[in-house]
Amino acid sequence: MKFLETRGNDGQHPEKVSFSEAILSPISSFGGIYSPESLPNLGESFLEAHIKSNYKTLAAAVLTAFDIDIDANIIEKALALYDEFDDSSNPVPVVKVKDDLFVSELWHGPTRAFKDMALQPFGTVLSSIAQDRDEHYLILAATSGDTGPAALETFKNKANVQVACMYPDGGTSDVQRLQMVTEDADNLKVIGVKGDFDDTQNALKKLLGSKKFKDTLKEKNILLSAANSVNFGRIIFQTIYHIHSYLELVRQNAIQSGEKVYLNVPSGNFGNALGGYYAMKMGLPVEKILIASNNNNILTKLINTGAYDLRNSSVIATTSPAMDILKSSNIERIFFDLFGKDRTKDLMAQLDNDKHYQLDESELKQIQAIFSADFCNDDEGKKYIKEAFSNGYLMDPHTATCFKVYDTCRDKKLSTIIYSTAEWTKFSPVIANALTGEVDTHDLDALKSISKEAGIEIPAIINGLFDKKITQSTIIEKDEIESEILSFL
Ligand SMILES: *Cc1c(COP(=O)(O)O)cnc(C)c1O
Questions:
Q1: How many angstroms separate the CA atoms of 194 and 222, rounded?
Q2: CA-to-CA distance for 335 and 342, rounded, in angstroms?
Q3: How does the average pLDDT of the chain come out, rounded?
Q4: Which among 114, 160, 278, 296 could disulfide-bond with 106, CB atoms 3.0 to 4.6 Å apart, if both were Cys?
């Protein structure tokens, strides 16, 4: 399978690339990204054939259907990382919460958030391609909390790859920061930046676009790449769990094979939802994909009105910070798939130049045939956390946004799969506040309190962080980032 540029070709980039090329250089002409030329059709016989498959067997079959240029033994090695999740026989448990509402838990990996689903196998794949080509890569990451730990974890001690990960000092939770600053592999550098997430993100974009920086790296024989969520190498692994979750409902006799379901996704950069969209296009029986946002409700507005408007808007800090995003990068791939490259280029240029675009009526109809959307503010989120807890289900604030959407966006009484993107341990002060009203400034106090309320232990992997040695203590001003990275190399 080949990958095409979402904004067409500028004569400087290749028009079509292989999967491994799309992974190594994810940005295409005119600032576009790569999208699959066509999608495999899996259909009902594929689902029937995999009713009894375990996660890895299903994953290997989906990747084979995509026909990517990665050796089978590398894929096998990458997928073996799912064996290290909590339950080696099933990395993604699907739990019935009530009636027709099921939660697919995507956080049973090493860093306790959904980013592991894609980044765990992605690290092995990227390092293997780099070794095959005898190339060395610097991976840059800027994180507001979950991507950083997951990227460090997947690349630690991997051959031919070094990682520089920037986070806003004081802008992450204790657990997220400790997950990063206690990593001690030689090929990892963690940099606290005095500033907010936008400062680190802007620094990253500047370096990725800087010819001078790239030339300096070239002298050291190092190429530059990024592990952000527009990389198709991450998206491909995010189609699999949607198919798996559907099959789990069949296995649990909640639905008959072929019956339609709702997928309900807490969304920011839209990578998780895009994986659901591809699964649907590949033949998964999905009625609609329900998109949940927080007060940064730009996706709700897009899907309900066709308008994407960044004028006079700035990011609002919420209790679901992984969704505090206004520029949702993967929407572009939906537009490319539905409206083609010319219209996508036109829409993205309008966004860059005017900070605004408006879909026409027929385009909006096409979007609304697939997606419905609503948003959930912090107070509503807390209410849903408390209510679910009193019914025996403990969840994080990102997952909670979906519960509102479950209440407001369904036209039919069909089984619904909510995707849970983080364990309670990662956003504990918000959850403790929802459950007891307490206000904690330290994660450890909140963790202890929830543990007591719920009668569950703090997982050892999280508890252990508070005693681990801090190995990454660099904290710098934002204009020192480039020189800090160069001295690490
Ligand atoms: C990254 C993340 C999201 C948003 O996922 P997208 O694929 O960017 O839409 C939601 N919840 C958590 C906890 C995350 O880490």
A1: 27
A2: 10
A3: 95
A4: 114
319 lines ligand 1 (CB under 6 A): no
Mutate which of 111, 143, 272, 325 for ligand 1? The one with the most ligand atoms within 8 Å of its CB, which is 272
In one-letter notation, the amino acid at residue 8 is G
Q: Coil, strand, or helix at residue 11?
A: coil
Cα Rg of the chain (Å, integer): 21
* Cα four-point dihedral sign 468, 471, 477, 482: negative
Q: Could you count the other beta carbons within 10 Å of the beta carbon of residue 221?
A: 9
CA distance 256 to 51: 11
For tokens 């507005």, the residue is 301
* Domain boundary assignment for the chain: 76-108+235-459
DSSP secondary structure letters along 360-427: -HHHHHHHHTTEEEEE--HHHHHHHHHHHHHTT----HHHHHHHHHHHHS-SS---EEEEE-B-GGGG
Cα 297 to middle of ligand 1, angstroms: 14
Token look-up 């005017």 returns 354
Task: For residue 325, give the ligand 1 atom closest to its CA.
Answer: 8
Sheet holding 16-17, edge to edge: 16-17, 3-5, 34-36
Cut 0.90: pTM above it:
yes
Look-up: residue for tokens 């190399």? 489
Longest dimension (CA), the chain: 61
15 DSSP assignment: S
Token output for 264: 């309900």
Testing ligand 1's pocket by substitution, the residue of 116, 235, 269 carrying the most ligand atoms inside 8 A of its CB is 269
Number of H-type helices and E-type strands within the chain = 22, 16
CA–CA separation, 116 and 122 (whole Å)? 9
CATH architecture, range 76-108+235-459:
3-Layer(aba) Sandwich (3.40)
Amino acid letter for position 489: L
Res 64 pLDDT > 90 = yes
Q: How confident is the model at residue 385 (pLDDT cuts 50, 70, 90)?
A: very high
pLDDT digits (tens, 9 = 90+) for 224-238: 988 877 899 999 999
Q: Is the pLDDT of residue 390 over 90?
A: yes
One-character DSSP codes across 145-207? SSHHHHHHHHHTT-TTEEEEEEEETTSS-HHHHHHHHT---TTEEEEEEES-HHHHHHHHHHH
Residue 453 near residue 186, CB atoms below 8 Å = no
Characterize the bridge pairing of strands 3-5 and 16-17: antiparallel
Cβ neighbourhood burial of 429 (10 Å; 0-12, 13-18, 19+): buried
pLDDT confidence of residue 465: 96
Distance CA 465, CA 183 (A): 10
Local confidence band at 196 (pLDDT 50, 70, 90 cut-offs): confident
Structure tokens, 201? 């993100």
Q: Give me the pLDDT at residue 397, please.
A: 98
Torsions phi, psi for 260 (to 5 deg): -85, 150
Beta bridge partners of 137: 161, 223
